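[RESIDUES AND BACKBONE]
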Amino acid sequence: MKGFVFLFLVFNLFTFLVFGYDKYLARTNRPRVREKTLLNLALMGGSVGAVFGQKIFRHKTKKSLYRFWIILVVQFALFELMWYYAPVLAQIFRSLWA
């Protein structure tokens, strides 16, 4: 479990840095990181880093289709977490209603 958390943090930090790097490339008029690459990073587990990258760097915030996909990816990641922790959540809810 600790390894999973470590990989999660590292991958989200990497995704966050790629968003920052793409913003730097945009400001210096250089070839950019493809949107597909950014979305794939978010989909592969870096959704938290993608959201923070969007907010902190103010990057890709005006593209409504891109925002839609990021929100969808974050919801997918939350669903995965809920599915993974479903037994623990069920036990918590049972103890609350008992």
Q: What stands out?
A: The chain has four helices and no strands. The helical segments are 2-27, 35-57, 64-84, 86-97.
